[in-house]
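Q: what sequence does this backbone want?
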């Protein structure tokens, strides 16, 4: 591998590239799915290859190959340079990189038990145990349980002298119960929707979820939702569980602070951002309780790593402080436009894709409102919503609507009647400005989102969001019927 990397960099420099980097990546994945008591799918895949990125006369070029051969390294480097020269014809301004230092380093996700050393029998047994617990509840029509693992080994090297080796290990699992009658379909998930909870860590994270212990509760709730009344409509005090706060952070805080969106270079596929650079340091994003950072060093976060795909060390950077916009997610190319150095958020999903600005762990600091129960007890009247079911947000990340799986009315500081198909809507700065309470550290969790999409060609991103339950005043709820 070292010889291949050296050949690639030498070849790139012979093309008169002012900068070059190479990533050699091997990704292994495994996924298991149990449905209605049967193993529905068991898949395993390995992908490996390398990508070379060059700057020639201020323009980017990128090429990649799955052939890990010395001659191929030379060919790919030359091709990347040719692409850079072609790109220059359409370029308005030359690319200028920040002065992030060259690093020689290594990083490995801390794990207690490597998931790829755990036998399939043990993994499937956990899923079947949870499935059986759901099956004991009459009225559930569909039972799903799943588990997945990723391991990425990669070496990054640059013409500036960086040499970085990393091994990132991810684990995740979840269960879901679906109840059906003549007019309704209702779903409940644990510990989160869209596949469950995902972290950087080993098999110990799966054991900690205790899927079977929570299976009966979600099954009973799914059945109860069939006959629950529709969510009321109106302006109400809204309490969100931590999982929904996490997705709210993702859509209305993480994406709009990506500086490539702000600068307009990410626009055609997933939109731009209302958080233009003139707002930096002065825009009132939320109430004074709202403090948000991007933290790629947070233990266990799905957006946690040692170094990004430009060789920049992982770090914690503030985005919103006391409700005011103070930072962006940046790369070595974009950071100089706001007079800063990269905070290390350029990542590529695969060896054959160019790095983009991606979220790391976008975290809302916990507050002083105590536990979820304390937050509800402090709310005279309102509604508590849990576990995302749907989302929609405009391409500037301003106007949004979310739907959750379940909600309960709050009366006199207590959860009372369950209601179905809850929804709420808002405008990002007004919504965060209405936040008047955030739960404490006891209910704070970094939730993993393994399906964030961005870019053309499209890339998947694995990101995390630290959140506790939170309360928002005067929010429009029940804005649509299902």
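A:
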């Amino acid at each position: 591998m070292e010889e291949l990397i050296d050949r690639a960099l030498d070849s790139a420099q012979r093309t008169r590239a002012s900068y070059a980097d190479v990533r050699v990546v091997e990704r292994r994945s495994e996924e298991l799915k149990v449905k209605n008591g049967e193993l529905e799918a068991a898949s395993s895949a390995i992908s490996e290859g390398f990508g070379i990125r060059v700057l020639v006369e201020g323009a980017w070029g990128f090429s990649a190959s799955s052939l890990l051969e010395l001659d191929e390294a030379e060919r790919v480097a030359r091709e990347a340079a040719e692409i850079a020269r072609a790109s220059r014809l359409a370029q308005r301004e030359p690319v200028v990189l920040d002065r992030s230092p060259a690093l020689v380093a290594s990083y490995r996700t801390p794990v207690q038990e490597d998931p790829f050393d755990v036998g399939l029998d043990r993994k499937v047994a956990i899923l079947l145990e949870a499935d059986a617990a759901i099956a004991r509840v009459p009225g559930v029509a569909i039972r799903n349980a799943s588990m997945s693992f990723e391991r990425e080994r990669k070496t990054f090297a640059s013409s500036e002298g960086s040499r970085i080796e990393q091994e990132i290990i991810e684990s995740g699992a979840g269960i879901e119960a679906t109840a059906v009658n003549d007019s309704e379909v209702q779903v409940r998930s644990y510990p989160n929707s869209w596949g469950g909870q995902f972290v950087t860590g080993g098999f110990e994270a799966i054991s900690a979820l205790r899927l079977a212990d929570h299976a009966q509760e979600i099954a009973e709730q799914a059945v109860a939702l069939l006959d629950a009344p529709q969510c009321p409509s109106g302006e109400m005090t809204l309490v969100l569980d931590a999982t929904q706060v996490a997705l709210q952070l993702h859509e209305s805080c993480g994406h709009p602070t990506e500086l490539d969106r702000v600068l307009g270079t990410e626009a055609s596929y997933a939109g731009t951002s209302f958080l233009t650079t003139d707002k930096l340091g002065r825009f009132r994003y939320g109430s004074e309780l709202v403090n948000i950072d991007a933290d790629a060093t947070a233990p266990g976060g799905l957006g946690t790593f040692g170094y990004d795909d430009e060789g920049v060390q992982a770090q914690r950077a503030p985005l919103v402080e006391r409700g005011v916009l103070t930072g962006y997610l940046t790369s070595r190319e974009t950071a100089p436009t706001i007079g800063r150095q990269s905070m290390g958020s350029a990542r590529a999903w695969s060896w054959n894709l160019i790095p983009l600005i991606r979220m790391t762990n976008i975290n809302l600091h916990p507050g002083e409102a105590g536990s979820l129960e304390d937050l509800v007890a402090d709310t005279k009247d309102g509604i508590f919503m849990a576990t995302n079911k749907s989302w929609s947000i405009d391409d500037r990340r301003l106007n949004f609507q979310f739907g959750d799986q379940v909600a309960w009315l709050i009366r006199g500081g207590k959860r009372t009647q369950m209601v179905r198909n809850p929804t709420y809507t808002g405008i990002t700065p007004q919504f965060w400005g209405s936040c008047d309470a955030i739960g404490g550290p006891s209910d704070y969790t970094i939730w993993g989102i393994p399906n964030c999409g961005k870019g053309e060609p499209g890339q998947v991103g694995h990101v995390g969001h630290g959140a506790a339950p939170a309360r928002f005043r005067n929010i429009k709820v029940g804005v649509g019927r299902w």
